[in-house]
Amino acid sequence: MSKRTFGKMMPRALAQQLQLMGEQIMLARKRRHLSMQDIADRATVTRLTVSKVEHGDPTVAMGIYARVLFALNFEKDISLLAANDPLGRLLQDAELLRNGWNSERHEARFNGRVVKDEDKVK
Q1: If pLDDT is split at 50, 70 and 90, which confidence band does 59 have?
Q2: Which residues make Cβ contacts (< 8 Å) with residue 51, sequence separation at least 6?
Q3: Closest by alpha carbon to 104, among 117, 85, 94, 91?
């Protein structure tokens, strides 16, 4: 009986994004005139694993992708993943407003002083 794995089943758009990322990693490696074996040695993985990364294989662990990016000197780019979150900010702001968050009071506390409702200029 074969082992069932769903590791390769994913939405087409996501698979395309992984393939694009793999292609960008491959191009970065080639621009630096590095072989797959060079990257494999630097990332302490096999050449086959580097090949899987460059093809956007979804079964490769995220830590491996991070090590390959590190081997290419892209470690700072890893922190950019999910850094820009406009939808999350909108949801957070809506929740804060729903709970009665007051921006003036918050800004005053942030600046080191507390403003009470009766202290506000109307």
Answers
A1: very high
A2: 36
A3: 117
